[in-house]
């Protein structure tokens, strides 16, 4: 395939492939053999070379999306910064890409901090989140010269008082009392949130920071939740944040939802930025710095997960079972998120069955797609689940001794391995040998 030709995106009769192209990675298409391509590379070749389950990331689409946040916010509010919320895809290569595309980075724990540093990210671009940062994590963050710590509570301030030896930039996370419309596990801004302090307590903590000679308090932060499909709640959050007072910086978190299913209607990046900036113009000081922290909406669409079909059973339902499952795709069980799937090596064939696409872990809840339309699948076929770039690798686990998948970045007809597959040796290395 010519690497610069636009990908062929057919819409065969008897399928919903035409609609799926807006959910699959931007740089995806169909080759002459009817096989899905991402970044100009056939997924059949990727599966052959790297094995399955495999996360495949469209690097071109990913970089374009990252830039659309950075440039879009700068155009609308020049004194601004976009932080990549790295929990959505915490891999060394992604930290490097985010920095290259002009994003600062949000880390939430010692592991993410180390991966960002391993990627060569300037520590001054790092913002450290978390409601239970340990002494060791805080000490390490201070030692490496972390840019900003987002303080969650007064115990953390006690720790910082002990640890600080030089001035440190700080923000404070507040609870805005905005109940985001999303899955309960993804709503984080309601009155009962475990993250941050309610306004009255926040004001006390702010006084404390402002009085401390080494605490360079810059402003306030909130994050109302994730996978939010409307823009009005982001505007409401900005308005609530303004009630904390007049500061140098306001960080309004992440949370923009993405289109996972045929029926989802997700706001564009532009509509989201318009809503936040309109609210900022109304409620925040004109010279304040405005920050946002998108994660999911930066990486989700760029990724697919490739699986190999292992068995097909007709037992009333049609069960198509693949060689992965909730060990590498926990989101369905955790948040009820629906995904769409496609038989990636037979794109041109009519979708004549509706199947239960299941994984191989020992839970009935290990259902990857409840009712996936596709051609009659056979063992050995390839299944691609769309929009898995965010929170899939993050939540991967070793259920039933599963190994964490590899990740490849693809662009311009080339693939490169950025995270290797976990091995059985890796798995066993953590355990003391059973002797005697
Ligand atoms: C503090 C904070 N900021 C940003 C995000 C990113 O959210 P999303 O991936 O929905 O954009 C999260 C996600 O949990 C978060 O906790």
From TrEMBL:
It catalyses: meso-2,6-diaminopimelate + H(+) = L-lysine + CO2. Its EC number is 4.1.1.20. GO terms for molecular function: diaminopimelate decarboxylase activity; pyridoxal phosphate binding. GO terms for biological process: lysine biosynthetic process via diaminopimelate. Keywords: Amino-acid biosynthesis, Decarboxylase, Lyase, Lysine biosynthesis, Pyridoxal phosphate. Pathway: Amino-acid biosynthesis; L-lysine biosynthesis via DAP pathway; L-lysine from DL-2,6-diaminopimelate: step 1/1. Pyridoxal 5'-phosphate binds at residues 255, 293-296, 391. The active site is at residue 362. Its cofactor is pyridoxal 5'-phosphate. The modification N6-(pyridoxal phosphate)lysine is found at residue 87. Residues 64-300 form the Orn/DAP/Arg decarboxylase 2 N-terminal domain. Substrate binds at residues 296, 363, 391. SUPFAM superfamilies: Alanine racemase C-terminal domain-like, PLP-binding barrel. Homodimer. Specifically catalyzes the decarboxylation of meso-diaminopimelate (meso-DAP) to L-lysine. PANTHER family: DIAMINOPIMELATE DECARBOXYLASE, GROUP IV DECARBOXYLASE. Belongs to the Orn/Lys/Arg decarboxylase class-II family. LysA subfamily. This is Diaminopimelate decarboxylase. It comes from Leucobacter insecticola.
